[in-house]
Amino acid sequence: MSPRHGFGRILVANRGEIAARVIRTCRRLGIETVLTVSDADAGSRPARLADKTIRIGPAPALASYLDADAVAAAAVAAGADAVHPGYGFLSENPRLARACAAAGVVFIGPAPETLEATGDKLAARELAIAAGLPVLPGAEAEPAGAAGLAARIGYPVLVKAAGGGGGRGLRVVRDPADLAHAVTVASAEAAAAFGDPRVYLERYVSPARHVEVQLLGDGDRVVHLGDRDCSVQRRYQKLIEEAPAPLLGAGLRQRLRAAAVALGERLSYRGAGTVEFLVDPGREAHYFLEVNARIQVEHPVTEAVTGLDIVAEQIAIAEGRPLRIRQEDVTFSGHAIECRINAEDPAAGFLPSPGTITNAVFPAGVRVDTHVQAGSAVPPHYDSLLAKIIAHGPDRAAAIGRLAGALGQCVIDGVATNLGMHRALLASEEFAAGGVDTRYLERVLDGESAAAVLENYGAGRG
Amino acid sequence: MELSNEDVADILALLDSLPYNEFDLQTPRFRLTLRRVPGGGWTEESQILADPVAIKPAADGAKAGARAGTGGDVGAGEVAGARADAVAAEAAGRGATGTEGERDGLVAVAAPLPGTFYRAPRPGAAPFVEVGDEVGEDTVVAIVETMKLMNSVHAGTRGRVAEICLGNAEPAAQGATLMLIEPPA
After folding, report:
1. Smallest Cβ distance to B147: which of A95, A189, A384?
2. Closest partner CB to B123 (pick from A58, A66, A192)
3. Residues sharing a CB contact under 8 Å with residue A18, sequence separation 6 or more, in sequence order
4. B76 part of a folded domain
5. Nearest to A341 by CA among A325, A324, A353
6. CA spacing 20 to 30 A to A296: which of A110, A326, A387, B180?
C-alpha cells in the first residue's frame, strides 16, 4: 500500500467520454491510469490522456471491451490495484467482478451478488417490493396465464424482458388480441438477446416521467445525492438530463429519495448506483423501475448541484473507506442540465454518423465531458456519444440560458450531430416550462413543431 | 500533463481583463486555443498531442492464468471472444474492401453505413435470404449494425440472390458490397 493507503494505479476498462472522465479524477488524486484500448481506440484522446494504454483486442466490442477475461488479464499485466469499469460494457457484469477478485484486483463497483440481483429485473422487482417500494401492478408472464394476468393489470400493458434493462426488450400491448403473440415473440427475443426467456407484464403508464435518485453506499450506510429527471428520451435513450427534477412536489421528492435509500440499505449497497422510477404526474405517484449498479452517463448534473466528485467517492469506497459524507452534509445548489451530443443525424431519422472529426470547438466556461478532438476517429463499433455539455445556474431558467448559449458556440465538423436538435429543444416553450413526459421528444419530432425543429438541424450538421 | 478545467478557468479570468481575442498555447504534449466570442464568452479547442504510451498486453500465459482463476465460469463469453477474434482476423483480409460494383449484369447491394453485417434478425434466427432466393426491391436482405443501431438493408432491386459476399458478423465498410442480385432476364 502507498502512503495514502489507497490505489496507486487503476485500470480504466472503458472508452469514450467516461474513460476521459475517470482519468481526470484519477490524475487529480495522484493515481496512475492504464486505459484498455481496442485496435479502433489505440490513438484516441483518452488513450493520449491516460498515463499508459494496454491493448485488449480488435475493434468489435465482443472481442475487446466485453471480454471479461481480457480485462482481468490486462489488470494483472498492468499491475493495477483496481479496475474502473465506467458504464455500459462490463460495468454491471458479475463475471468481471469475480474475475477481478480471483486475480487479486479490486473491482470498483458493487459486490457480484448485488450485480446479480439488480441485473435480473424480476429479482430486482422482488427486492424493491420487500424494501417497501411501490411497483407497477404486474408479474412474470407464462404464455398460458398471460391473458388473465393482463386483464387483472388492465390495458395497455408493457411486456418486459427479465434480462433486459436500459430500455431494451420492451413492447407495449394495447389490444388483448395482440397479447399472446407479443409474449411469445418477446420471450423468443429475450432468449436470443439476453440468454433468458423470462418476460413479465407491467401496467403501461402514459404520460409518465423518468426520475431517478443517485445513491452512494459503503456496504453499511447509504446516502442519496438527490434526484435527476431524464424524461427527454427517444426510443428509451436519454438525451437531456437535469438535476433536480423540475416541478416535483416536495412530498413526492422526499418519498422518491427515501424509497431509493431504503432499497440501497436493503441491498447493503456498496459504491455508486442509481434507482430509477417512473413518476405518474397525474397521480403524484412513483413506481420502481430498475437499479443501475454503476456510474451513469448523466452523473455530472448531480456533481454540479452537490459539488461532489462521484468518481472520487467510488474510488474511496472501493479502497475500503467508510462513506466520507453524511446525509446532512449533502447540500444542493442551483440547477444543472446536460445535453448529450451524439454522432447521429436527426434530419435522416437519427442515422448514426461515424467518421473523422475535423474540427471540435467547445464552449469554455461550462463543463464539457468529451473524448473527441480534431482528428479523432468516431468508429462504427461503439455508441454515438461524442460529448456531454453541462451548464449550471442559480435556477433552471439560468441553466437553460447558459446551456443554450454554450450550444450556440459549439462546432463539430466531420460527422453529423444532434446539436441543432438540442438548440431547438432548449428554445421550446414546453421544455422551458419543465416537467415534460417521456414522449415529449417523440411528439416534437412527429408533430407540427417538427418543422421548426428541422429548420434548426442545419446549424447542427457539419 | 494536461491543463485541468480549473487551470482553463483561471486563464479565462485573466484573459477577460486583457485586450486580446485569442490565446494559443502549445507544448509538445498539448495545444489549447481560446477565442473570444463576439457578445461575450470564450470557446475552447484543445488537442492532446502526446502519443499514447502502450504497455505490453497481457501475455497468453497471464490471460490463461486469469481465466483459470475464474474457475468454471468461462464458457459463453470466452467462446464469443474467440469467435469475434477470428471474425476480425478474417475481416482484415476482405471485409473492408470497397465496392465491387456490378459484375456480369449482377447488381450490388451496398452497405448504407459502415458497420457490422448480419444475415439474420437476431442470433440463432434464420437468415433473411439465402443464395437463390427471389427478392423484391423492398425485401430486407440483411442488417448492418452501426453504433449499436440496427439498420435494415433492402435489396433495392428485383431479382435472385446470386452471391452473399460477407460472412455473418463481419465488418463492412461504407458502400461495401454485401450481396449480388441477378435481375430477371
Report:
1. A384
2. A192
3. A86, A87, A295, A297, A369
4. no
5. A353
6. A326
3-state helix, strand, coil in chain A (%, to 5): 40, 30, 35
The residue among B11, B22, B46 with the most chain A CBs within 10 A of its CB, best to mutate, is B46
Instruction: Assess if residue B29 is contained within a domain.
Output: yes
Annotated domain spans of chain A: 9-108, 137-203, 209-460
- Residue identified by cell 428541422 is A454
Kindly report the CATH number that applies to the domain delimited by A137-203: 3.30.1490.20
- Total domains present in chain B: 2
Domain A209-460 has CATH 3.30.470.20: yes
- Other residues' Cβ atoms within 10 Å of the Cβ of residue B59: 12
**Dist CA A351 CA A68 (whole Å):** 30
- Taking the CA of residue A356 and the nearest CA in chain B, the distance in Å comes to 13
Please answer whether residues B87 and B167 qualify as being in contact, where contact means their C-beta atoms are separated by less than 8 angstroms: yes
Within a domain: B44: yes
CA gap A81, A93 in Å, rounded: 19
CA B160/CA B136 separation, integer angstroms: 9
CA B145 vs. chain centroid, Å, equals: 9
Q: Are A288 and A376 in contact (CB under 8 A)?
A: no
ipTM exceeding 0.90? no
The 3-state DSSP composition of chain B as helix, strand, coil percent (nearest 5) reads 20, 30, 45
The C-alpha cell 417521456 sits at A438
User: What is the block-wise mean pLDDT of chain A (462 residues), using blocks of 10 residues?
Assistant: 72 98 96 98 98 96 93 97 96 96 97 95 94 94 89 93 74 92 83 81 93 98 98 93 96 97 98 97 94 97 98 98 97 98 91 94 95 96 96 98 96 97 95 96 75 44 33
Structural domain includes residue B56:
no
Residues 6+ positions from A309 with CB-CB distance below 8 Å: A25, A28, A303
Q: A9-108: which CATH topology? A: Rossmann fold (3.40.50)
Q: Are A7 and A293 in contact (CB under 8 A)?
A: no
Q: State the nearest Cα–Cα gap between B144 and chain A, in angstroms.
A: 10
Residue A175: is it exposed, middle or buried by C-beta count within 10 angstroms (0-12/13-18/19+)?
exposed
Burial class (CB in 10 A: 0-12, 13-18, 19+), A322: exposed
CATH of the domain at B143: 2.40.50.100
- Cα dist. B54→A22, A56, A170, A351, B106 in Å? 18, 11, 41, 34, 46
The contacts of residue A454 (CB under 8 Å, 6+ apart) are: A346, A347
According to DSSP, the residues that pair with A377 across neighbouring strands are A356
